Amino acid sequence: MLWPSDGVVTLAEEDRTYQVITPELPIRFPATFSPGQTEVNVDLTIYWCEAINETLCFVERGTVTMPVTVDASVFSSTLQIAYTLVPPDLD
């Protein structure tokens, strides 16, 4: 994950690189938030197989970019980043 160094969203150093086989979803990381604006970039490499045909597996690479605004007058301790896996059309 490419966290900005501006302090708006802070993630512990040990959580910035995440690698696991068969993760429990959703994947959660503790973070701290300070008022301001920033952009969070998450680089993904996901190896996954179809549920019905488990021998059909794919490698998905992508980047999720999310603009973030933290307002001191609004209480929220969650930042959600979603990524949908779509099987490629093999026809």
Could you please describe the fold and organization of this structure?
The protein is mostly beta strands and 91 residues long. The chain has a domain at 1-22 and 36-73. Helices cover 0% and strands 37% of the residues. It contains no helices and four strands. It has a two-stranded antiparallel sheet with strand order 1-2. The protein has a two-stranded antiparallel ribbon with strand order 3-4. Strand 3 and strand 4 (57-70) form a beta hairpin. The termini are far apart.
Please outline the helices and strands.
Layout: E1 9-11, E2 31-33, E3 36-49, E4 57-70
- Give me the secondary-structure category: mainly beta
Largest sheet: 2 strands, antiparallel
Low-pLDDT segments: none
State the total count of DSSP E strands: 4
Proportion of strand residues? 35-45%
Instruction: Give the strand line-up of the largest sheet.
Output: 1-2
Describe this structure in a few short sentences:
Helices cover 0% and strands 37% of the residues.
List keywords for this structure.
two-stranded antiparallel sheet; mainly beta; about 90 residues; single chain
